[in-house]
């Protein structure tokens, strides 16, 4: 029995332990007086001993003069950390002990989101900082991070930004993704942030189209190259591929870029019932509830298992596209009594210090739970028959309010993306043809 158990335990420990990425980080040199080393450009950076993974650094002066690092940590293996500030006015190094604030939402996993927070030294104004488990070390060997949000603003380049959860591996729900993005644009989104792992070739072409259009900003998220979870005890899906870390990074990334930030999963849309878009809805809510900067919306689950067979919503062009057609899923699960209903948010990011998927852990100002008569969170997912039989589902056609513009806009996207594909194939065929003729003659 021991010969069987010992290899299993060794394999389990290997699977649970975080690992470094297989490819080297993309880095440039930092040479400012004594501040010398590698300036990190990748989304995720493993610190020494591979137990802490830093995503990005942000200046936060809302209460104190702080630098906040958004990170993933192995919470049982936290060690002392120190912030090495590169002071801009004299290029000296100032070392401050860090405080590690671990987020409570870990889903029972050994890894989770954390903030590594340091009080900035006086008369320093650092633009770069490194994080190290010691007050001693070679500066040339340390990874250096740029501190973002150094300048706070009261004007914003965007009014509404959507922060989506992590796009999981091999994502291929193309039709629903395009429908969701076009709905976000109709409702007032100026930008959609996507933390991308991997996807199908068609999905990749769709993303490239939206990037060129200026709607989507992609942040690569190779989390499985850094943190390995045991497939026996845990899964990346349980963890949401680090969705809490991504959510908090997106908040701080847009702190002074966007007036409001909308939190959604890819299969979710905050649907106003009394207003044509988010702007008019939020302005109305702010007039009624002054001082509120965080708005919660109830999740309402629409079954993917039950189809509505209406030809006008079964568009011919869409039949060849993989994914869910949200216009055909209008049967809603009843809310469970005596159970806390999940919610998503539209927030003023300056009001948020720390967020989880469905709540604000730390923040400023008042919050408001928006009535389901004003708006709902449309969530199209697989129906759980062990919870409700199909006979209990309720017909709810709220999303049809937008069907005309949605169908037209989605068709335009596919026309452009697919026509480009046909053009590129035609060019390749003609190129091969002329090359063959050249060889003959």
TrEMBL record:
Protein family membership: Belongs to the glycosyltransferase 92 family.
UniProt membrane topology term: Single-pass membrane protein
Class of this enzyme: transferase
InterPro entries: Glyco_transf_92
An example Gene Ontology molecular-function term: glycosyltransferase activity
Name of the molecule in the record: Glycosyltransferase family 92 protein
GO cellular component labels: cytoplasm; membrane
Native source species: Crotalus adamanteus
EC numbers on record: 2.4.1.-
Signal peptide positions on this chain: 1-18
Location in or out of the cell: Membrane
Pfam families xref list: Glyco_transf_92 (PF01697)
Keywords from the UniProt entry: Glycosyltransferase, Membrane, Signal, Transferase, Transmembrane, Transmembrane helix
